[in-house]
Amino acid sequence: MKWPHNTDKSGLNAADEQQLRPRDIIFTIPNFISLLRLISIPLIAYMIYTDRKWAALIILALSALSDWLDGFLARRMHQISKIGQLLDPLADRLLIFCSVLVFGMAGLLPWWLLIAIGLRDLVMLIEVLVIAQFGYGPLPVHFAGKTGTALLMIAIPALIVADLGQGYIFASLHLAAVACSIWGVVLYWVAGLIYLKQGYDILHIQRVREQS
């Protein structure tokens, strides 16, 4: 099947593709929103730790809204930036790690979940630093990684709500949130292994190029 001139299989023409390509810009509205989300993370963790759960839920909801808003504005205003592609997943990972840390300190989640999440992100950080030495940016996000992150993002507010009351409903919600966290971590690691394979392939190709 042939595609129209100057278009790819996604239906974008050359001009649209150029606008959606990340640029070396820093001071943009989407990046400012991502920065605010990063700043809100210790505040959310503090609210959870000090048992101000309703305040934590409100800030968490605003943070989730900003997660959608910065991506939407970046595409709409043609302000997709390289630093934005780093800030957005960084904010998600820090929110998950800090929240799980606080839940672990409060006894609402097992500590092995925190260790599993922290270890996976540490491995990914090392991989990003290694492939960056060869001029490669962050690897494209895999569906398993998106799903794992989504499950963990669902589990965080569910755990907060489950801790607001007593009884069968709240206990069931707590169990569901813990199960959601476990599946999120499993998919988190599945995606991590996929990223490691992609990183290995990149380094292998680079080595072949250097030898040829």
UniProtKB/TrEMBL annotation:
Give the highest taxon in the source lineage: Bacteria
Write down the PROSITE patterns for this protein, in alphabetical order: CDP_ALCOHOL_P_TRANSF
Compartment(s) where it occurs, according to its Swiss-Prot or TrEMBL record: Membrane
The protein's matches in Gene3D superfamilies, at most eight in alphabetical order, are given as: 1.20.120.1760
**Topology in the membrane?**
Multi-pass membrane protein
The transmembrane residues are 25-48, 54-73, 94-116, 122-139, 151-169, 175-196
The molecular function terms of the Gene Ontology recorded here are: CDP-diacylglycerol-glycerol-3-phosphate 3-phosphatidyltransferase activity
Q: Which family does it belong to?
A: Belongs to the CDP-alcohol phosphatidyltransferase class-I family.
User: Can you quote a single GO CC term?
Assistant: membrane
Keywords of this entry = Lipid biosynthesis, Lipid metabolism, Membrane, Phospholipid biosynthesis, Phospholipid metabolism, Transferase, Transmembrane, Transmembrane helix
This protein is called: CDP-diacylglycerol-glycerol-3-phosphate 3-phosphatidyltransferase
Q: Which GO terms describe its biological process?
A: glycerophospholipid biosynthetic process
